[in-house]
Design brief:
Elements lengths: L1 H21 L3 H21 L3 H30 L5
Helix pairs in contact: 1-2, 2-3
């Protein structure tokens, strides 16, 4: 049962990584990349590595996603020129 759950989660990693690459909107791509990292952290829990899972969840899916979304938000505000 554990093997099938791990394979299912790994398939989710592949699907969400494919979505991250193929999305045209940057926000959608960042969210899909965060989902990839979240699936990876669940896989680490199944493989009995809770310390790696906690690190992946907090940094990979949490902090990196927030930083990317903040950067996208800041660059969109700078693209708008009020003089036009």
């Amino acid at each position: 049962m554990l093997v099938w759950m791990t394979l299912l989660i790994c398939a989710g990693i592949l699907v969400s990584a494919g979505l991250a690459v193929t999305q045209e909107k940057p926000v959608s791509a960042v969210i899909a990349a965060g989902l990839t990292s979240l699936f990876a952290s669940v896989t680490y829990v199944f493989l009995a590595a809770p310390d790696v899972a906690m690190t992946e969840a907090s940094i990979g899916s949490g902090l990196a996603t927030v930083i990317f979304l903040y950067a996208i938000n800041r660059t969109r505000k700078q693209d708008v020129d009020p003089d036009d």
